[in-house]
Amino acid sequence: MRISPLRLATIELFSARGTQRTDLSKPSTRFGEVSLDRKGDCRTVSYERQEEIYFVVEGTGVLHYQDQAQALRKHDFTYLPPGAKHSISNDSDQPLRVLVMGFKIPASISIGAPMAHAKVANLAESKEETVSGHPKSVLYKLLIGLHTGKRDLIDEAYVMDSFFWMDFAPGGTNWPHHHAAAEEIYLVMDGQGEIVAGSGENGVEGRYAATAGDAYYFRPNCTVGFYNQDKPDAKAYILAVRTRVPVHEDDE
């Protein structure tokens, strides 16, 4: 299901067939864009059992984490653990646009104390690479992963198991595939092509025109993929986040 334009602080989550999701026991609770005017700020928040990711789309600002302040610039991203007080502000004369993603952590997962210092990295710091099992026509930047991993720039998350950037060559694809125990969100950052979405392993592959600014939510076991235009110099970039869905979920 396509959600466009992406201009709300919070976007309701939908299933791949277009019906509004009511099963908010799933981990993904928030995916949207916050826009701060010049000299604007957000109130400080803290979530006991929710982790968040911020990604700066445009502009510069300041991340306030616990009692610290850290500068943010375009394409910076950070992981915000449960229990940490945080907010953002815009100390410039230009608008600041930040993607905000939130993920609920089930009670069955043990969490530790928040990090003493926020970890901030930039998209440019991550090298592009191929990923095993995927075609070479798409290159990945692995940005944030689970705290048990060591492959991403920031490995601190509990249920958000992969936050990554995809760079598609002309005619490139990441092939339609499934995640039986994970939900995924794609945001087309630049370019255009066809998003693939279906109803499961026995479903029919559906292709939907996609362009920059379109966001798609894929429920667990839904067909997911992307085909870039097969034209000279046709580049496409997608920012994606995948979240684990426990087999036995908590009734919270």
What does this structure look like?
With 252 residues, the protein is mostly beta strands. The chain has a single domain (2-244), classed as Jelly Rolls. Helix content is 0%, strand content 45%. It has strands at 2-3, 28-36, 50-58, 61-65, 68-72, 76-80, 86-89, 96-104, 119-122, 138-146, 154-157, 160-168, 182-190, 192-197, 206-211, 215-218, 224-228, 236-244. The chain has a seven-stranded mixed beta sheet with strand order 1-16-13-18-12-10-11, with no helix packed on it. Strands 2-8-3-6-9 form a five-stranded antiparallel beta sheet, with no helix packed on it.
Give the CATH class: Mainly Beta
**CA distance, first residue to last residue:** 26 Å
- The ordered string of helix (H) and strand (E) elements is EEEEEEEEEEEEEEEEEE
Radius of gyration: 18 Å
Number of helices: 0
Topology:
Blueprint: E1 2-3, E2 28-36, E3 50-58, E4 61-65, E5 68-72, E6 76-80, E7 86-89, E8 96-104, E9 119-122, E10 138-146, E11 154-157, E12 160-168, E13 182-190, E14 192-197, E15 206-211, E16 215-218, E17 224-228, E18 236-244
